[in-house]
């Protein structure tokens, strides 16, 4: 083939190759939607949990800001009657939509250390991690001890709060969290501690604390500043008698216990 013919073929094929390359770049950009196509950054569960937690925190802040805007607009429309204002304040404290302060204690729960897991390959893995039942047992004991308010991972616990186990993370208000888990309660510290000591479930948990070094630590606090609940108050599973039930999508969760 002559040099002239080779040159002509090159001139003819070069635009086609460039067009194909451009198409690949455009397809890649469309699929990525501006994100990194390399999966290594978020392949670990910890990375996914942290990403979702940050996203949830951002949405929660936006919700709080919008709620404040609504309250300001309501205030501009005129003040409400003093009796109604007091009733609203009392109900807000009971529901958990206002911040509170006071003495109390914090319970921290942790999974067994990685070295303990390696040293006990024949032990059921469920025995070496904290489950939703463990967190629920602590929360229930604190309520029984007269807690005025409780938070988990610095998120206020209200009447509709659900604690769910998904894999080796715990989901609270739709957001996954990894250990350590911190449960904080405001109230009489002696009564709260006694309620923890009297809990049969927590007494059973202490056996695993001794055998497999699960983390269980109670710390007294002289002053706790607990945030208000800033999420939605809509019911997701329960219904109010006399009101029609509205079906809602609920993610499937699995949990295991000792």
UniProtKB/TrEMBL annotation:
Listed InterPro entries: DUF881
Pfam families on file: DUF881
Domain of life: Bacteria
Alphabetically ordered keywords of this record: Coiled coil, Signal
Gene3D superfamilies cross-referenced by the UniProt entry: Protein of unknown function DUF881
Coiled coil: 49-76
CC per GO annotation: plasma membrane
Signal peptide: 1-32
Family: Belongs to the UPF0749 family.
This protein's name: Uncharacterized protein YlxW (UPF0749 family)
Organism in which the protein naturally occurs: Kribbella voronezhensis
């Amino acid at each position: 083939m002559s040099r002239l013919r080779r040159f002509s073929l090159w001139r003819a094929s070069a635009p086609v190759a460039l067009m194909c390359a451009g198409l690949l770049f455009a397809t890649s950009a469309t699929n990525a939607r501006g994100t990194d196509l390399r999966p290594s950054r978020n392949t670990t569960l910890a990375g996914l949990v942290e990403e979702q937690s940050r996203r949830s925190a951002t949405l929660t802040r936006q919700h709080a800001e919008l709620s404040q805007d609504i309250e300001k607009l309501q205030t501009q429309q005129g003040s409400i009657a003093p009796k109604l204002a007091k009733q609203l304040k009392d109900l807000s404290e009971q529901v958990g939509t206002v911040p509170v302060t006071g003495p109390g204690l914090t319970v921290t729960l942790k999974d067994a250390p990685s070295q303990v897991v390696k040293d006990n390959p024949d032990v059921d893995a469920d025995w070496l991690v904290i489950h939703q039942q463990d967190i629920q047992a602590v929360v229930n004991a604190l309520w029984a001890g007269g807690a005025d308010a409780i938070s988990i991972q610095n998120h206020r616990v209200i009447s509709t709060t659900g604690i769910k186990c998904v894999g080796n993370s715990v989901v609270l208000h739709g957001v996954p969290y990894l250990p350590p888990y911190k449960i904080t309660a405001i109230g009489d510290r002696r009564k709260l501690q006694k309620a923890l000591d009297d809990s049969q479930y927590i007494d059973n948990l202490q056996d695993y604390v001794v055998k497999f070094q699960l983390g269980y630590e109670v710390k007294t606090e002289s002053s706790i500043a607990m945030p208000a609940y800033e999420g939605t108050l809509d019911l997701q599973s329960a219904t109010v008698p006399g009101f029609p039930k509205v079906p809602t999508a609920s993610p499937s969760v699995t949990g295991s216990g000792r």
